[in-house]
Design a protein that fits this description.
Helix content is 56%, strand content 13%. By secondary structure, it is an alpha/beta fold. The protein has 2 domains: 4-27 and 252-292, Orthogonal Bundle (Helix Hairpins), CATH 1.10.287; 32-251, 3-Layer(aba) Sandwich (Pyruvate Kinase, Chain: A, domain 1), CATH 3.40.1380.
Length: 297
């Protein structure tokens, strides 16, 4: 049975841990608010760009652009967006489970954004093509080399498709691991709901449904189409990164809140055990004094 001194040491240690987890919870909450705002604001731009592409697609044949056709290669490229730090619950674990339960094909290469993803792939001995450490908060200019690399490799015939694995932010308590096809662009989901809510659940609508917005394009529809598609791919990838960062801070805040609550409950249990031991020690001392007095009489 532990002594009162051991319990006091444990109580002090748990108090210090609770202070650390509480501070991390507050920091994650502040970062989560900024990341949520960035993700929410980015959804409107991606949706508008998606509507422009729907109007463009209605005027030209999508087969004229290679982004609508499978690449000439036999390999699959996966962009894995994970976190740089831990202490965020099952954020990375669930994403890896979702990724490797999906149909990736026999020959797959990976590009990682985030140190945890690259470490996991190294332990699994997967073919890691490149790793891009991006700072937080994420900036579009920092992501452009990643978007350019995957588009160049796809157009160069190295891959037949490009997938992105990321955590889709639903709300503070709900994060959904998602594997989304980025290239070739699927014309069925092109005009669907791309607000990154409920992605992968069959909610995307057919691009042919609903009215098509009329735009005037100069110099020609085909040239604008060729310019907008790479921009669309880059912005979609950036939006996925924003969703992942919002999910990361949300998961870390929830994990640290649970850790703080568990530490408080442990303090209560340790305090109760300490009081019981102290009371038992006092009772034993009283019994010894009483016994000694009776013996002297």
């Amino acid at each position: 049975m532990p002594s009162t001194r051991d319990i006091r040491r444990r109580i002090k240690s748990v108090k210090n841990t609770a202070q650390i987890t509480k501070a991390m919870q507050m920091v994650a909450a502040a970062k989560m608010k900024k990341a949520q705002d960035a993700a929410t604001q980015g959804r409107a731009y991606v949706d508008l760009l998606n509507k422009v592409l729907v109007s463009l697609k209605a005027r030209v044949e999508e087969t004229i652009h290679p982004y609508f056709n499978e690449g000439a290669g036999s390999k699959t490229l996966v962009i894995l967006i994970s976190s740089d730090k831990g202490l965020c619950g099952a954020f990375n674990t669930n994403l890896m489970k979702k990724l490797f339960t999906s149909d990736l094909g026999s020959d797959t290469e990976f590009i990682t954004i985030g140190r945890k993803g690259s470490q996991s792939l190294a332990r699994l001995r997967k073919n890691l093509s490149a790793d891009f450490p991006l700072k937080d908060p994420a900036k579009f200019l920092d992501l452009r080399p990643v978007a350019k690399l995957l588009q160049d490799k796809f157009l160069g015939g190295e891959y037949n498709k490009v997938l992105v694995a990321f955590n889709n932010f639903i709300n503070t308590a709900t994060v959904s691991p998602t594997v989304e096809q980025l290239l070739p662009i699927n014309p069925v989901t092109l005009g669907g709901k791309r607000a990154f809510e409920g992605m992968g659940q069959g909610e995307a609508a057919d691009a042919t449904q609903g009215p098509v917005l009329e735009y005037a394009f100069e110099p020609s529809t085909a040239e604008v189409f060729a310019q907008v598609l790479p921009q669309y791919v880059s912005n979609t990838l950036f939006q996925m990164l924003l969703e992942s960062r919002a999910s990361e801070h949300s998961s870390r805040m929830v994990a640290m809140k649970n850790a703080t609550d568990n530490a408080k409950q442990m303090l209560k249990d340790l305090s109760l055990e300490y009081n019981k031991l102290r009371q038992a020690a006092i009772t034993n001392e009283l019994l010894e004094i009483t016994t000694a007095k009776m013996a002297l009489e």
